[in-house]
């Protein structure tokens, strides 16, 4: 195949993945809409008859079947995204993260892979709807900044690009899943406080468990972000531009993201911050990442504007 054909195949796989993931997301939405609270078995006085609402097993199993379909479609969409990243790399003859479009496609594939591993290990498929919503948002932003396949800026073509960008993308994927868990925590915690947990939220674990999932994701992502943004990034900058740190807008916002997540972890470990305050702080951290990834690249000129 020619390089143009590889590029066209990559574009087709990206579009197909987006469509499949949209269907998976709507399966989760359908799961929420069809959720039914499982009431305890009730027996009519003086008889052995079970009340009608407890006999319709097909109705109560519908949400579970929808979750299974959604997870299967998410696996398919993730494989398509991985294929899109690989074929984009073949089209550009380099690693597929030289610009915002490639970063978004590859990063979303990593985020969904992290989520699916957690589904396999910890059964967190209850997070699927929110995780897919965040991933589709990132992927849509990336597609909106589509860049034709082409070579990397020559000054940046060193082996440090693999180390730096891979670390950043993996950390961002973990932050993305952590942010989804934080959103779910806030919704479930509020419902628990009001004593109005409906049939949809009953399908989610207790708020405390969701909070722990968010913490684990952010705790693993933080050292990767530290290495990628504050260690390998400056080394790459020195090789490309002759300086380790230049207070470029991208560098500044990467540092801000690091500070917010450092504060989040410090507050949890030393001050015992849990619950809402920690969740809000984690979401602030993810917002700073979005600003660094999208706003800075598109609206603030700097040496990182190409990416």
What features would you describe in this structure?
The protein has 307 residues and is mainly alpha-helical. It folds into two domains: 1-36 and 52-152; 156-307, no CATH class. The chain is built from eight helices and no strands. The chain is flat. 39% of the residues are buried. The model is unreliable at 37-58 (pLDDT under 50).
List the helices and strands and how they pair.
Elements: H1 3-34, H2 57-92, H3 100-122, H4 128-144, H5 160-194, H6 207-241, H7 249-270, H8 276-299
Short description:
The chain is mainly alpha-helical and 307 residues long. 73% of the residues lie in helices and 0% in strands. The chain has helices at residues 3-34, 57-92, 100-122, 128-144, 160-194, 207-241, 249-270, 276-299.
Protein traits:
single chain; 73% helix; 2 domains
Q: What general outline do the C-alpha atoms trace?
A: flat
Radius of gyration: 22 Å
Would you report the number of β strands? 0
Q: How far is it from the N-terminal to the C-terminal residue, by CA? A: 27 Å
- The number of helices is 8
Q: Largest sheet, if any?
A: none
Task: Please trace the helix and strand order, writing H or E for each element.
Answer: HHHHHHHH
Strand content: under 5%
Instruction: Domain count, please report it.
Output: 2
- Average pLDDT number: 85
> Which spans have pLDDT < 50 for at least 5 consecutive residues?
37-58
Helix % is over 70%
| Category by helix and strand content | mainly alpha
């Amino acid at each position: 195949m020619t390089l143009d054909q590889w590029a066209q195949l990559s574009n087709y796989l990206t579009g197909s993945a987006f469509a499949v993931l949209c269907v998976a997301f709507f399966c989760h939405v359908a799961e929420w809409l069809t959720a039914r609270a499982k009431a305890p078995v009730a027996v009519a006085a003086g008889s052995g008859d079970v009340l009608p609402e407890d006999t319709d097993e097909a109705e109560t199993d519908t949400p579970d079947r929808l979750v299974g379909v959604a997870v299967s479609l998410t696996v398919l969409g993730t494989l398509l995204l991985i294929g899109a990243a690989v074929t984009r790399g073949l089209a550009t003859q380099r690693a597929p993260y030289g610009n915002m479009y490639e970063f978004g496609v590859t990063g979303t594939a990593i985020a969904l892979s992290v989520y699916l591993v957690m589904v396999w290990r910890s059964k967190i498929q209850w997070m699927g709807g929110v995780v897919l919503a965040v991933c589709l948002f990132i992927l849509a932003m990336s597609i909106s900044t589509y860049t034709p396949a082409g070579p990397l800026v020559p000054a940046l073509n060193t082996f440090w690009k693999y180390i730096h960008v891979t670390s950043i993308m993996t950390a961002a994927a973990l932050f993305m899943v952590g942010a989804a868990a934080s959103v779910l925590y806030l919704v479930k915690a509020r419902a628990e406080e009001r004593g109005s947990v409906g049939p949809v939220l009953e399908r989610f674990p207790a708020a405390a468990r969701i909070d722990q999932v968010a913490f684990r994701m952010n705790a693993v992502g933080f050292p990767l972000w530290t290495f990628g943004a504050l260690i390998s990034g400056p080394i790459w900058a020195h090789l490309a531009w002759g300086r380790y740190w230049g207070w470029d807008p991208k560098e500044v916002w990467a540092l801000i993201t690091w500070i917010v997540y450092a504060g989040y972890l410090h507050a949890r470990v030393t001050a015992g911050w849990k619950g809402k305050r920690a969740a809000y702080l984690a979401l602030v951290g993810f917002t700073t990442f979005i600003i660094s990834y999208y706003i800075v690249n598109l609206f603030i000129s700097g040496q990182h504007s190409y990416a």
